[in-house]
Amino acid sequence: MLGENALEQQLAQARAALRDVSRTVTPRDRVESVAEAADGRIRVTIGTDGRVSDVDIDPRVLREGSEYLATELRHAVNGALDGQDDGAAEPMPDLAAMTATVERLQDESLRQMREISRAVSETMRKLQRD
């Protein structure tokens, strides 16, 4: 069983390691993504900054009417935006929040460990007197 000082030292090391990781982790870079709609007659490109960088519309698609154009343009933009997510399989965790939670839990654990240790010591003293 770990003594109180050894436990505190391990918890301090764990906190330091978590802080180090949070400093070195960088968000994933976005990639350019392209999507097409209206049988390839509408093409939308989303740049690495996450903004629409190019919209290419074949003039023949205009004959289909404004509702059709709006619907297909929306499909192309949403498809290109969805393509931005391909590089990121899962969202980046909030390491600062995780660090704060771990520190709070560790502090609470130490407090409880001290209380348990005091209770055990007191019980042992009572048993030795009897």
Describe the protein's architecture and organization.
By secondary structure, the protein is an alpha+beta fold. The protein contains 3 helices and 3 strands. A 3-stranded antiparallel sheet has the order 1-2-3, with helices on one face.
What's the quick description here?
By secondary structure, the protein is an alpha+beta fold.
Question: Strands, helices and their partners?
Answer:
Elements lengths: L3 H21 L8 E5 L4 E5 L5 E6 L8 H19 L10 H35 L1
Antiparallel strand pairs: 1-2, 2-3
Number of strands: 3
By secondary-structure content and strand pairing, the structural class works out as: alpha+beta
| Rg of Cα set | 29 Å
Q: How many DSSP H or I helices?
A: 3
Q: The biggest beta sheet, please? A: 3 strands, antiparallel
How much of the sequence is in beta strands? 5-15%
Question: How many domains, as an integer?
Answer: 2
